[in-house]
Amino acid sequence: MISLAQTGNVLYTYVFAMVKTSKIKGNIVILSGPSGVGKGTIINGVLKKIASMRVAISATTRQPRREEANRKNYYFMSDYEFDEKIESDSFVEWCNVLNKRYGTLKSEIEDTINEGKDIILEIDTQGAQKIKAKMPDSILVFIAPPTMKDLEARLINRQTEQEIDIKNRLDKAKLEISEIDKYDFVVVNKEINKAIDSIVKILTKSCKEH
């Protein structure tokens, strides 16, 4: 494990299929971290600084939050629609997280990497390891909170979950954090702009090496 940014600071059934291309030209970047750690904000910041980078929009069966829009933040699907995608083998991977399902569509990846562009996938720790096993050149980055107290405060402040949901997310966060030694890089998100800059440096260097 390499920690480049000590700035202070989703299971579970997986279906994985290799992207069917003769040669993968772009890099696949896997970004993981507990709910509430700031992954979405960090990804948006990275995309502004690396013009060639794209993000894979995940599909989910959970309801959108107030600030989220369909086909922008997620592909929001009913259970029936999600089942259809599974039956048609449309996912690169999918998983169950706190009784909701999340998945990455093959179509979100294939066009991007075949054009030689790099793509970020926001995926939970177990899914990240599945992809790493199939695609060893994938770059794994874990976003960690400064402390569990900080993470709890962030979950409470965003006012999107009930108390029991926050407890479940914190329990899951502890399990996720125990997996950080399996990642290529770890960034502690204490200050968002510094965390973004650290990841930009990681990806600029690592993607050039692939």
Q: What is this entry, summarized?
A:
The protein is α/β, with parallel strands linked by helices and 210 residues long.
Describe the protein in words:
By secondary structure, the protein is α/β, with parallel strands linked by helices. The protein has a single domain (2-209), classed as P-loop containing nucleotide triphosphate hydrolases (Rossmann fold), CATH 3.40.50.300. Helices cover 39% and strands 20% of the residues. The chain has seven helices and ten strands. The protein has helices at residues 39-49, 79-87, 106-114, 125-134, 148-157, 163-177, 192-209, and strands spanning 2-5, 28-32, 54-55, 58-60, 75-76, 91-97, 100-105, 119-122, 139-144, 185-188. The strands form two sheets. It has a six-stranded parallel sheet, with helices on both faces. A four-stranded mixed sheet has the order 5-4-7-6. Helix 1 (39-49) packs across helix 7. The radius of gyration is 16 Å and the shape is globular. The relative contact order is 0.27.
